[in-house]
Amino acid sequence: MVITASPEEVGKALADASVEVLTEEELYSLLKMGGVRAYIGIEPSNVLHLGTLVACEPLIRLARAGFKTIYLLADVHGWLNDKGELDQLQEIAKKNQELLSKILRSRGVSEADVEFVLGSSYQFDTKYVMKMMHLAKLVTASEARKAMDTISKKDVMHRVGSEFYALMQCLDIGYLGVNVAVGGMDQRKIHVMAREYLRKLGYAKPVAIHTPIILGLDGRAKMSKSLDNAIFLDDDEDSVSRKIFQAFCPEHEMEGNPLTMLVRWVVFPWLGFFEAGGKTYQSFEEFAEDWRSGYLRAKILKEGLTEALSKIMRGIRSS
Question: Which of 66, 184, 217, 266 is 20 to 30 A (C-alpha) from 301?
Answer without folding.
Answer: 184
